[in-house]
Structure formats: structure tokens, C-alpha cells
Design goal:
Length: about 140
């Protein structure tokens, strides 16, 4: 193994360590972990939805709505309206019909949202078509 190869591997680590020391000295903290946790949380929530909505077209439509409404954050809250969760239910408590754990369980929110889209629009695809035309669903 060449020394230059080792330097290429070590340099980013050294730079990160130097940045961490400088940040700590200045009283700051490097916080890469929460962003990473949020990403893995969103991807695991998407995986739950994909299992619950196996049809690709329906899942893609559901996913587009959720991405616009909450960014796949099951705790997303609209401060102006009080809409809550992945699908921004209003009032949020409507999701209790899908389960008592609606505030914290993405699967419960997905179930409620899917039921809502199916009953009101006929399917997630039709709900997405409405959303595109109106900017809400």
C-alpha cells in the first residue's frame, strides 16, 4: 500500500477531526447524526408504506402526496392549521379511527391516509391527480 493512498484515506479523517476540535473550541457541536437519523427514519417509513401499498402506481402517488405534505415526517405539524402527520390530517385526531397510536406510529398514519384517499378520491392516484390540480387534497 502506498503512502499517498494512506494519506488520501487519512486526510479526510484528519480534516474532520480538526473541524470537530475547532468547533468544540468555539463552543459548537457537529451534528451530522440527527440528519442521518431523519433520513433513515423517512426511508423506514417509506418501506412501511411500500409494504402496505404494493401496487407501484398507487404507492408512487401516495408517496408524492406525503412528500409534499410532510416530507415523510410522521410528526410534521402545520402551525397555522394544526394539520398533523404524514398525510396532514385536519383535525389530526381523525387519525385515531385507524388506531390509538396515531400520533407516533407511521403505519397507523399510512393506514388512515390510504383509507382517506380511497374513500374520498377512489385511490391514491386519483388523490394525487386532485392534488396536482388544486395544490391540496
Amino acid at each position: 500500500m502506498s503512502v499517498s493512498f494512506i494519506r488520501r484515506i487519512a486526510s479526510p479523517k484528519k480534516a474532520l477531526t480538526t473541524a470537530a476540535v475547532a468547533a468544540a473550541t468555539a463552543g459548537l457541536a457537529l451534528t451530522a447524526a440527527p440528519a442521518q437519523a431523519a433520513t433513515s427514519s423517512a426511508s423506514s417509513t417509506q418501506a412501511i408504506a411500500h409494504r402496505m401499498i404494493p401496487d407501484a402506481a398507487q404507492f408512487n402517488a401516495f408517496s408524492r402526496i406525503v412528500e409534499h405534505e410532510s416530507g415523510w415526517n410522521p410528526s410534521a405539524t402545520n402551525s397555522a392549521s394544526g394539520a398533523y402527520g404524514l398525510v396532514q390530517a385536519l383535525p389530526a385526531s381523525k387519525m385515531s379511527s385507524a388506531g390509538a397510536d396515531w400520533k407516533t406510529n407511521p403505519a397507523t398514519q399510512i393506514k388512515w391516509g390510504l383509507d382517506y384517499m380511497n374513500s374520498r378520491y377512489g385511490s391514491p392516484v386519483k388523490a394525487w391527480n386532485f392534488w396536482q390540480a388544486n395544490g391540496w387534497y
